[in-house]
């Protein structure tokens, strides 16, 4: 896994090929301009896709990623490319959701991170997956993810 910590070498501002897999995708990080301030950053990914590792059929989800940064922010273009790399990647819902959370935690060492994977049903059963690094910080407003429980999303 490659990670960059300065503006040089970032994928931002230049042509970047789509990574062939999440393992090959490069996530970039940039310095947090407010490292002494607790605040929440949220990424909502309304059209996340991966492949079922058994059937090869597409799976669809809404991902909500909340984190309280410490020294680093994830650079959003690299995050988009990383998440796009799952389109041709076979993995179960749990592996995708938790794996993304673990990789971001390894890259950023945030004060707090949580990810919710709200998966559309396959075989008649929606599987929603939630993971977090620990207890939310009391100093940060942690809003509801905003994704309704399954009612034929």
From TrEMBL:
InterPro entries: GTP-CH-I_C/QueF, NADPH_dep_7-cyano-7-deazaG_red, QueF, QueF_type1. Keywords: Cytoplasm, NADP, Oxidoreductase, Queuosine biosynthesis. The active site is at residues 52, 59. Residues 1-31 are annotated as: Disordered. It holds the Pfam family QueF. It comes from the Bacteria. Pathway: tRNA modification; tRNA-queuosine biosynthesis. Substrate binds at residues 74-76, 93-94. Gene3D superfamilies: 3.30.1130.10. SUPFAM superfamilies: Tetrahydrobiopterin biosynthesis enzymes-like (SSF55620). It is found in: Cytoplasm. Its EC number is 1.7.1.13. GO terms for molecular function: preQ1 synthase activity. It catalyses: 7-aminomethyl-7-carbaguanine + 2 NADP(+) = 7-cyano-7-carbaguanine + 2 NADPH + 3 H(+). Catalyzes the NADPH-dependent reduction of 7-cyano-7-deazaguanine (preQ0) to 7-aminomethyl-7-deazaguanine (preQ1). This is NADPH-dependent 7-cyano-7-deazaguanine reductase. It comes from Methylobacterium goesingense. The gene is queF.
């Amino acid at each position: 896994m490659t990670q960059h910590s300065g503006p040089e070498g970032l994928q931002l501002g230049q042509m970047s090929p789509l990574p062939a897999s999440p393992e090959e995708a490069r996530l970039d990080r940039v310095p947090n301009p407010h490292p002494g301030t607790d605040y929440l950053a949220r990424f909502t990914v309304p059209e996340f896709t991966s492949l079922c590792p058994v059937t090869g059929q597409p799976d669809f989800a809404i991902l909500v990623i909340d984190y309280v940064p410490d020294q680093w922010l994830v650079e959003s273009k690299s995050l988009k490319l990383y998440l796009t790399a799952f389109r041709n990647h076979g993995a179960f819902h749990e592996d995708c959701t938790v794996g993304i959370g673990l990789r971001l935690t390894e890259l950023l060492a945030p004060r707090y991170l949580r990810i919710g994977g709200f998966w559309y049903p396959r075989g008649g059963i929606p599987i929603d997956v939630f993971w977090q690094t620990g207890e939310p910080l009391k100093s940060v407003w942690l809003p509801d993810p905003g994704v309704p429980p399954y009612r034929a999303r």
